[in-house]
Design goal:
Length: 420
């Protein structure tokens, strides 16, 4: 090239060497950048990664203020606030928890259709804001009892996805040793998972009575659905709870359908938050985790102050049918489900708020999504491969602390040994 430039000293040829050098330098720079990006993608702990990460995180806002829907009130002069603060740390925690519950329920749907999960199975996808908003507003020492749509609450109360999935498949590693299945999961200060419609409500009042009797500054959150709201035992419980000023938050998760019956066809009054009559009530947007959090905090403060019980109605929606045996589209349209997904999905709502207020980035949330998928896949793998309980262990754990004793089987000649 130099020889040709000397022989043909035209301006065009003399200048051709400079672009070539610039092109080579650009290639070297790009090569270094690609190597650096490769290290970052592979999870390198190089100083470059630390510097880039810290610089990105420093660009995010630490918190943001949001207007939330005002609660409808019954026998309450002033309700929860209509504005609230969300920190970046809390937002990421809420997002990850709701995503994990959503993924876990979708995986349960898949395992059920593969006949790896058997029996009754009621999924919670669509209602994640309820269990997450409630849990972050109460204390770990507080108590909670719910009905059979309980997987989300089991997770927020401290049980891992691995133990929940193993319980769903009836394996030894399940949170109830494979004996409870979908409807009967338990944790510290979490009393299930109850299969009889509405029966957990008087039990919850009993737990609240114990809290008051033992003079502990604790409360009991007692949940039921709109399908159970017309049960007579619930109204009896309201009466006792108000007479004795029990520290109990009664929460009706109104997902608009009791099995396949809409609330308008099942209830003469659909104002479930007013059903307590003499008990104060709140109607809350149950699709917004911040609304649920603020309302639950308000209700918890009410109970701890000695004013007695309070009733909350969470207006929410389930995407699946009542149970896995219900396709969920014979009494409602696919368009209705899609409309709720597109306009009111609790995870999408939180995600949009965080992105619009610079509390996170698309890339960061995608990274969380990938971690959640990995955790749920590993939990499902464990739940599929873990062994089932041995038959001779069938009668174990009838009592929590009792000497071993014999239990009769299905006939007088079959006996099992029960060990605590």
């Amino acid at each position: 090239l130099v020889h040709r430039c000397a022989r043909h000293p035209t301006p065009e040829i003399r200048c051709s060497a400079r672009p070539l050098r610039l092109g080579l330098e650009f290639s070297l720079v790009m090569s270094k950048m690609l190597r650096l990006l490769g290290n970052l993608i592979r999870g390198s702990n190089s100083p470059a990664k630390v510097l880039v990460g810290s610089r990105n995180y420093a660009d995010f806002a630490s918190e943001a203020s949001f207007d939330i829907k005002k609660c409808d009130l019954h026998r309450v002069e002033e309700g929860p606030p209509s504005t609230t603060i969300l920190t970046r740390e809390d937002g990421l925690k809420y997002y990850r928890t709701m995503q994990l519950i959503r993924r876990m329920e979708l995986k349960a749907d898949q395992l059920y259709k593969q006949k790896i999960i058997r029996g009754f199975c009621h999924l919670y996808d669509g209602q994640e804001a309820c269990c997450v908003g409630i849990e972050v507003a109460i204390k770990p020492t507080d108590h909670l009892i719910t009905a059979y749509r309980s997987h989300g609450f089991t997770y927020t109360r401290g049980i891992s996805a691995k133990e929940i999935m193993a319980e769903l498949t009836g394996r030894r590693g399940g949170c109830a040793k494979g004996r409870g299945g979908s409807m009967h999961m338990y944790a510290d200060n979490f009393y299930g998972g109850n299969g009889i419609v509405g029966a957990q409500v008087p039990l919850g009042a009993g737990i609240a009575l114990a809290c008051k009797y033992l003079e502990k500054n604790e409360i009991c959150v007692t949940l039921y659905g709109d399908g159970a709201a017309n049960q007579g035992q619930i109204f009896e419980t309201y009466n006792m709870a108000m007479l004795w000023k029990l520290p109990c938050i009664f929460i009706c998760e109104n997902n608009r359908y009791g099995m396949g019956t809409s609330v308008e066809r099942a209830s003469a009054s659909t104002d479930y938050y007013k059903r307590g009559d003499y008990i104060p009530g709140l109607r809350v947007d149950g699709m917004d985790v911040l609304c649920v959090r603020e309302a639950t905090q308000f209700a918890a403060d009410h109970c701890r102050s000695g004013k007695g019980p309070i009733l909350m109605e969470l207006q929410t929606y389930r995407y699946h049918g009542h149970s896995m045996s219900d396709p969920g589209v014979s009494y409602r349209t696919r368009e209705e489900i899609q409309e709720v997904r597109s306009k009111s999905d609790p995870i999408s709502m939180l995600k949009d708020r965080m992105l619009k207020n610079n509390l996170s980035s698309i890339e960061e949330l995608k990274e969380i999504d990938a971690g959640v998928r990995k955790e749920v896949e590993e939990a499902a793998q464990f739940a599929t491969n873990d062994p089932e309980p041995a038959l001779e262990e069938l009668a174990n754990y009838i009592y929590s602390n009792e000497s071993a004793f014999d239990v009769r089987g299905t006939n007088p000649w079959i006996k099992y040994r029960s060990v605590s």
